[in-house]
Amino acid sequence: MPQGSPTSGVGRVIAGRYLLLNRLGSGGMGHVWLAHDQRLACEVALKEIVFSNSASADAEREARVARAQAEARHAAGLRGHPHVVTVHDVLEHDGLPWIVMEYVADAMDLRDMVGRHGPLAPAECARIGLAVLDALTAGHQRGVMHRDVKPANILLAPDRTGSPYARVLLTDYGISVQPDAGETRYTLTSVLVGTAGYLAPERATGGPPTAAADLFSLGCTLYHAVEGHGPFTRESPLAEVTAVVMEDPLPPARAGALAPVLHAMLEKDPLLRIPAAEAEVALSRIVTPQTEAEAYARTQTDLGSQSPWEGQAAPVPVAVPTQASPPYGYGAPPSPSFPTGRRRRQRPRRLQAVLAGLLGLALALGGVWYAMAHQPPGKDTSSHQPYGKAVGLSAPLKDGDCVTADWPGGNRFQGTPRLVVDGTCRTIVPDGQVMAFVSTASAAEARKVGDDRCAQRTQEIRGKLADVRGYAVVPTDAGFDAAGHRTACLVLGAHGPVYGPLGSHRLMGASFADTSTMQKRDCLDVPSNRAASLVSCAGKHDQEVLGFTRLGAGVTLAQARTQSDAVCARDVPPADYGFDPSVYEAASWTSQGPWKSGTHFVVCAVRKQNGGTMEGDEP
Questions:
Q1: DSSP conformational letter for 298
Q2: Could you tell me the strand order of the sheet in which 18-26 lies?
Q3: CA 478 → CA 387, 442, 474, 564, distances in Å?
Q4: Which residues pair with 531 in a beta bridge?
Q5: Which of 99, 251, 436, 521 has the CB geometry, 3.0–4.6 Å to 47, for a possible disulfide?
Q6: How is the beta sheet containing 486-493 ordered, strand by strand?
Q7: How far apart are CA 413 and CA 491, in angstroms?
Q8: Consecutive H or E run containing 220
Q9: What SS3 class is residue 403?
Q10: In terms of domains, do 181 and 328 share one?
Q11: Measured in whole angstroms, how far is the alpha carbon of residue 525 from the centre of its chain?
Q12: Does 175 fall in a domain?
């Protein structure tokens, strides 16, 4: 029996807080438990680290502990992403780490889904693929590779409307790595880190983890979902690894329109493998195979038949523009282009006819646009409100616009808020700010993908702030052109105003009016214990923000100002961030905003014990 199992069962309390209820599953790192957080009165998932036997425990302990801590650090960096299981904390109990994660109720992993219900339809596989690709891209942008994408690590759960399996979540960053971060890669001697049959060929032969390798694993996963088995399924793990390196994938029988995309993702040469942006375009067209323009041209894609990219010979990678297209492949249907290293095919005659039809349609629609643009005043003013009457704006939002949000009935994030804009961020106390945009081909597409895309675009800044949420302002059908075909991505205070500009919209040297705009890794000039301003971390600064904590509901602001340093030293110790405890100490910041909203958030920082400035010697 694995070491620790007899004492780690149902009813055990971990770290004096988490009551184990039942085991949810087991994996290479250990067990995952459903637990009750006795402090916050909610359910969480706890990952417990176990060792295969006591003899190897000491040898494995250091590597496994380090890997668990790396998992928490990497996955926590993706906190708030709509398609990543949130990691809340990592703690030690009886000398071993436990990772506290979001509990996803009523979830089923993709492996079990296929095992119980059979292979999925190509369009459903493409939908799942888009969500996982979005999560992987967010990690890749931070330099984090997953390294173990497989059906068992993809959860399907009900969404907020109760639709079963609509929510797609990538989990288990336990073997993730940042290849350029100088970190030790926590692998066991002579053991491949990953899962046989889902490893990229370059990983199976000892190459480094890359974004392209994760994409290969995603291709294997989607193949499993649509076919019911992996593309390199063999009688043993060793045979599977050999097949990954030496053999072609098994010919798909059920993939239909998904087949050429899978072929492009399973290209053995990573330099020829379809990149993420092109894969997203290809998968998007399977999920929504008929755009508005294609509807006029009377072309359709049969999800169970030949794909629009499929030639008369074997399928080849999808080729789309790499420069003119909007980010993540959304926008108008791209014109074919062929990046270096890919084979070019002759354009099918049917596609030529479609393109000719689209050209005629564009000319016709141009005439319609001209007529509408020059109609007499008063005929139709709906397009003068890009986001509709409820939002009430007469002009499209711009990057950096500060806004106030008046929610129906005063219930924040319920319904559609009426917005008031201040482009200067000086005349109002802002509830939030426009931080990004998402371009789409139609208002219908914006309604479908706007929330998730905005969540992804604003995920990094939201992760750096203490108490904010994202919100997508989607254009209406009538206001789509006026909005520039863009959904505006807001970051709003979750429980109250943010009191000023956020992120890169803040000016160096500006004083903080409230802690709500302080973010992780901000460097501060502190002329007094009640004043701070934002300065560059490259120069002299007095403090650096590390994170946040929360004080109890009964703690007053006056009490917080005397207690917060000690609480930060306990909850966000500078030593955890590499600061020498003999030189540095915890500092804290409080303000009226979090006490007015009832959240009681405290900003935790680090400073030198001798009061000196911090430049050039931080970890």
A1: T
A2: 13-14, 18-26, 30-37, 42-49, 96-102, 87-93
A3: 9, 11, 12, 51
A4: 528
A5: 99
A6: 418-422, 402-406, 432-439, 486-493, 468-473
A7: 12
A8: helix 211-227
A9: strand
A10: yes
A11: 32
A12: yes
Angle CA 405–409–413, to nearest 5: 50
Residue 70: CATH number of its domain: 3.30.200.20
Could you tell me if 264 and 400 lie in one domain?
no
Handedness of CA 267, 273, 276, 279 (dihedral sign): negative
- 288/455 Cα distance (integer angstroms): 21
Burial class (CB in 10 A: 0-12, 13-18, 19+), 472: buried
Phi, psi of 366 (to 5 degrees): -60, -40
Average the pLDDT over 115-120 and give the result. Answer: 90
pLDDT tens per residue, range 437-489: 999 889 999 998 888 889 888 888 998 998 899 999 999 999 999 999 999 99
End-to-end CA distance of the chain: 41
Hey, what amino acid is at 306? Q
Question: Does 201 share its domain with 315?
Answer: yes
Q: CA-CA distance, 309 to 610, in Å (whole number)?
A: 66
Residue 463 φ/ψ, nearest 5 degrees: -70, -15
Q: Map residue 219 onto helix, strand or coil.
A: helix
CA atoms within 13 A on the CB side of 462: 26
335 and 483: one domain? Answer: no
- CATH assignment at residue 200: 1.10.510.10
* End position of a domain, from candidates 429, 459, 493: 493
Give residue 315's pLDDT: 32
Among 109, 134, 148, 525, which one carries the catalytic annotation?
Answer: 148
Answer yes or no: pTM beyond 0.85.
no
Position 139 pLDDT exceeds 50: yes
| Separation CA 287–CA 122 (nearest Å) | 8
- Asked if the structure places residue 502 within a domain, the reply is no
- Please report, for residues 91, 248, 466, 539, the alpha-carbon distance to residue 245 in angstroms, rounded to integers and kept in the order given: 39, 9, 46, 50
> Catalytic residue at 148?
yes
Task: Collapse the DSSP code of 543 into the 3-class scheme (helix H, G, I; strand E, B; otherwise coil) and give the result.
Answer: strand
pLDDT digits (tens, 9 = 90+) for 45-78: 988 876 555 545 555 566 666 666 666 676 677 7
User: Does residue 191 belong to any structural domain of this protein?
Assistant: yes
* Residues 415 and 283 occupy one common structural domain: no
Whether residue 147 sits in one domain with residue 14: no
Cα separations (Å) of 130 from 133, 277, 287, 393, 568?
5, 11, 9, 32, 39
What separation in angstroms does the CA of 85 have from each of 27, 41, 71, 78, 252? 16, 20, 12, 9, 30
Whether residue 346 is predicted with pLDDT greater than 70 in this model: the reply is no
Q: For residues 262-275, b (16+ Cβ closer than 10 Å) or e, as one string? A: bbbbbbbebeebbe
* Of the residues 58, 84, 102, the one at which a domain ends: 102
Distance of CA 566 to the CA centre of its chain: 33
Summarize pLDDT for 374-425 with one digit per residue, the tens: 444 444 444 478 999 999 999 999 999 999 999 998 888 888 999 999 888 8
Q: Can you say whether the dihedral through the CA atoms of 496, 459, 452, 157 is positive or negative? A: negative
Residue 472 lies in a domain: yes
- Residue 41 or residue 64, greater confidence: 41
**Segments forming the whole domain that contains residue 171:** 108-342
**Sign of the alpha-carbon torsion through 223, 226, 227, 229:** positive
